[in-house]
Amino acid sequence: MADQKADETVDDSDLRKIRPWIAALLTVLGWGVGLYYARRTKAAILMSVASGIAAISLGVAGITYIYMNSPVSLPAGFAINDISDLAYLLLSTPFVIGVWVYVVKSPRLAEKAGPRRLLGYVVIWAAPIAISVAAALVIRFFLVQPFHIAAASMMPTIGQNSYFLVEKSAYGINKHSFAPFDILLPDRRFAEKTPERGDIVVFRNAKDGLNTYVKRLVGLPGEEIRFVGGRLHINGVPVAREEVDGTNNGCRYAGSAVTYVETLPNGVFYKTKECDADFGRFDNVGPYTVPPDHYFMLGDNRDQSQDSRVISRVGYIHKDFVIGRVHLSKEKNVEQTNDS
Q: Which of 112, 143, 174 is the last residue of a domain?
């Protein structure tokens, strides 16, 4: 990395004018890169560190917001990445302008970059990215991971095109927590905990190319599940439910939509939607006997959910494919217990 004294000893033909627009453009690529181009190495290192801290802070802020407000619904066609990109652009703008003004007010010549300085560009640009990616992977694999649901299968609990967090450590960590790197890891689950009936879980569907699904766990190993006249039965006992809304609210097509509050045997209650009232194709199915180490999953939007009732497409979910528990914070959507 050449300093000013070194620049004064070189031949004039090896000197290059530092151009404001190049410095500004490089600052967009990385906060410290423009300053490094302007031969302010120490300031460039500080700005590189600051950009890494800013990226981590933005990520933590986004996760905190989702944690406190989940599920977070966004307009169709609008992704949460758009928000992070906009935030980065807004944060970068003053630095881009500042570097431009600095170079304009402090014109100087600099020696043509050699291999050592070119390597410095790579380090200044890549270091904050590497740090922020490493922090994001630790959070994603071991703590919480943001998920997005585009379908309406969990309405009215989780709306279409909503974001929420999955608690990775709720049931312990196994190789599916590290997807798409799971193929490199053993099958063992660490700090294993048993899911509870009524939990909303994220799992990978072995019958659908290991795609990720979001459903509610209603059936435990060894239990018999069936639907009679639209009513969920567990081990031959109908699950209590109460109609709370008979309007057509959010179904894909016009029909006799009904919303119920369903209460499971352990006291967990939540809303379910019946777009076909009690006359849908899944309203008289079963019995299903849940195998050992498996669970029976249902969508809360009962007539518009592909779940464990469809044996050929989903079926029973082995415990090893369960990734984590969905965290919901909004009182109107979150499942509760009668003890709360």
A: 143
Q: Of 124, 143, 162, which closes a domain? A: 143
8 Å CB contact between 59 and 135: yes
Rounded to whole angstroms, the Cα distance separating 4 from 241 reads 78
161 vs 180: CA distance, rounded Å: 23
Q: How far is CA 240 from CA 77, 262, 272, in A?
A: 38, 6, 12
Q: Which residue has the higher pLDDT, 249 or 282?
A: 282
Give the active site residue among 132, 153, 162, 308. 153
288 and 223: one domain? yes
Whether 70 and 183 share a structural domain: no
Determine whether 215 is an active site residue: yes
Is residue 131 located within the same domain as residue 53?
A: yes
Report field, pTM of the whole predicted structure over 0.90: no
The domain tally of the chain equals: 2
Q: Tell me whether residue 193 is one of the annotated catalytic residues.
A: no
pLDDT in tens, 86-145: 888 888 899 899 999 988 888 777 777 678 888 989 999 999 999 999 999 999 999 999
Domain identity same for 114 and 168: no
User: Of 51, 162, 177, 215, which is the active-site residue?
Assistant: 215
Please tell me whether residues 208 and 305 are part of one structural domain.
yes
